[in-house]
TrEMBL record:
<dbReference type="GO" id="GO:0071555">
    <property type="term" value="P:cell wall organization"/>
</dbReference>
<dbReference type="InterPro" id="IPR051582">
    <property type="entry name" value="LRR_extensin-like_regulator"/>
</dbReference>
<feature type="region of interest" description="Disordered">
    <location>
        <begin position="31"/>
        <end position="51"/>
    </location>
</feature>
<keyword id="KW-0472">Membrane</keyword>
<keyword id="KW-0677">Repeat</keyword>
<dbReference type="InterPro" id="IPR032675">
    <property type="entry name" value="LRR_dom_sf"/>
</dbReference>
<keyword id="KW-0325">Glycoprotein</keyword>
<feature type="domain" description="Leucine-rich repeat-containing N-terminal plant-type">
    <location>
        <begin position="61"/>
        <end position="94"/>
    </location>
</feature>
<dbReference type="InterPro" id="IPR013210">
    <property type="entry name" value="LRR_N_plant-typ"/>
</dbReference>
<feature type="signal peptide">
    <location>
        <begin position="1"/>
        <end position="25"/>
    </location>
</feature>
<keyword id="KW-0732">Signal</keyword>
<keyword id="KW-0964">Secreted</keyword>
<dbReference type="Pfam" id="PF00560">
    <property type="entry name" value="LRR_1"/>
</dbReference>
<keyword id="KW-0433">Leucine-rich repeat</keyword>
<dbReference type="Pfam" id="PF13855">
    <property type="entry name" value="LRR_8"/>
</dbReference>
<keyword id="KW-0379">Hydroxylation</keyword>
<protein>
    <recommendedName>
        <fullName>Cell wall hydroxyproline-rich glycoprotein</fullName>
    </recommendedName>
</protein>
């Protein structure tokens, strides 16, 4: 059956992925000039490119690519000459999934090559590619539509480049795609809802210029990690976030201009280990449902406009090692939350709230300005990812208070918004 032969082929491809990862573990970055022995491991001698249609296509594609590479300071692609494409630096060949006697180009790995250039349309000729790693280069322009031709593509890492344009929708039609990493580029416009319906293991789109709201339809997602931080989404977190419940372990939405209340459905994400919604404009109370997140290790709610009580149910979560509620407008800590040293084993930050008994709080004036306008989350429904019209009791959401009496936020704002998950990957 076709599916079993495809499975067989993919097993070979996964082996190739493994080889790639291993070779990168042992590869010294300072020696990455394309002369290390592993680059030639898959050189084909039995099949000259002229007798192999795929390699001939690959030759056309890679030469077209070379013509739109304008800077290669490490001479990474200096050996992209001649028809033996399997000997090119960063190009990996293996047996064809359709015919094990034929070599095909299955992987491209130009990570950290510092190359500047474009992606040519001819990339669509490399139809046997299983992985493309272009992390940390200076590629710019748009992702060519022809990438939809790469029906075996399993990993696509374009992170830390200068790609622009709308979300590259051709990737949505790639049936094998499992890992998509677009972080640290200049992509703009909305995220398509279909992104969250693909069978992806990880969705990294942080540090771009994506706008509009978090799509309200999030059904069918399989991702365990969703990082959409440092974009300009605005809107609110839709209750449909609950559709991630069976897989989601890390959700990072810091610094995305999110507003509205946190939906109680966040508490349905029972596998969550990391939840970071810090540095947004989120209103209202902490939903009590968060007390059900038994696996939660890191919870960061800092730098929002949350009000009300820090609930004891959250403070006693068994695996919680770091709880940040600072820079909000909480006016009470329930039970053990008042003295987390008594709980022990946890890093707790409750500075800059409106907690009467605690040091380093906001001024009464600052607190009153916000607490005089209670938020009703029942009226504040999140419809299609957009907070339903009303900010503060029917009036449009006012800008955050000016922090005139608080010098500290400047220092905090200057700290880099990087965590290991946010930083460019090193796949
Ligand atoms: C897509 O792949 C086929 C070969 O499978 C090739 O003939 C065609 O030109 C490719 N399309 C693009 C746009 O590269
Ligand atoms: C949030 O919105 C403000 C005002 O529109 C804008 O200046 C800021 O860059 C936005 N933040 C992000 C992370 O895009
Ligand atoms: C706890 O989380 C905060 C906010 O993410 C971070 O700044 C801090 O370094 C973390 N502390 C520890 C001990 O991990
Ligand atoms: C907090 O708990 C610790 C340990 O139980 C205790 O030593 C300390 O006095 C308590 N602090 C306050 C303010 O109650």
């Amino acid at each position: 059956m076709a599916s079993s032969s495809l499975l067989h082929a993919m097993a070979g491809y996964l082996l190739l992925l493994l080889l790639l990862h291993l070779s990168f573990l042992t590869n010294n970055p300072s020696a990455k000039h394309g002369h290390s022995p592993h680059h030639r491991r898959h050189r084909s001698h039995s099949h000259s490119p002229t007798s192999n249609v795929g390699l001939r296509q690959a030759y056309i594609a890679l030469q077209a690519w070379k013509r739109v590479i304008y800077s290669d300071p490490l001479n990474f692609i200096a050996n992209w000459v001649g028809t033996d494409v399997c000997s090119y630096s960063g190009i990996y060949c293996t047996a064809s999934p359709h015919d094990p006697k034929i070599q095909v180009v299955a992987g491209i790995d130009l990570n950290s090559a510092d190359i500047a250039g474009f992606l040519p349309d001819e990339l669509g000729l490399l139809t046997d590619l299983a992985l493309i790693h272009l992390n940390s280069n200076r590629f710019c322009g748009i992702i060519p539509q022809s990438i939809e031709n790469l029906t075996l593509l399993y990993e696509l890492d374009l992170s830390n480049n200068r790609f622009v344009g709308p979300f590259p929708s051709p990737v949505l039609s790639l049936p094998m795609l499992n890992y998509l990493d677009l972080r640290y580029n200049e992509f703009e416009g909305p995220l398509p809802p279909q992104l969250f319906q693909k069978k992806l293991d990880a969705i990294f789109v942080n540090n771009n210029r994506f706008t509009n709201s978090v799509p309200a339809v999030l059904s069918g997602s399989t991702a365990s990690v969703v990082v959409i931080a440092n974009n300009n989404f605005q809107g609110c977190l839709p209750p449909s976030i609950a559709n991630f419940a069976d897989t989601l372990e890390e959700l990072l939405i810091t610094n995305t201009n999110l507003t509205g209340c946190l939906p109680p459905e966040v508490g349905y994400l029972y596998k969550l280990r990391v939840l970071d919604v810090s540095r947004n404009d989120i209103l209202g109370p902490i939903p009590y449902s968060l007390a059900g997140l038994a696996h939660l290790e890191i919870l960061n709610l800092g730098h929002n406009r949350l009000t009300g009580v820090v609930p004891q149910g959250v403070c006693i979560l068994p695996n919680l090692g770091n709880l940040t509620v600072s820079y909000n407008y909480f006016c009470e800590e329930e039970g053990i939350c008042m003295n987390m040293t008594a709980r022990g084993g946890i890093k707790y930050d409750d500075r800059r709230n409106c907690l009467p008994e605690k040091p380093l709080q906001r001024s009464e004036q600052e607190c009153n300005a916000v607490l005089e306008h209670p938020v009703d989350c029942f009226l504040q429904k999140c419809v299609q990812g957009v907070a339903s019209g009303t900010g503060f009791l029917g009036s449009p959401t006012p800008p955050p208070p000016a922090f005139a009496s608080a010098p500290a936020p400047m220092a905090a704002a200057a700290t880099p918004l990087l965590s290991p998950t946010l930083a460019p990957s090193h796949t």
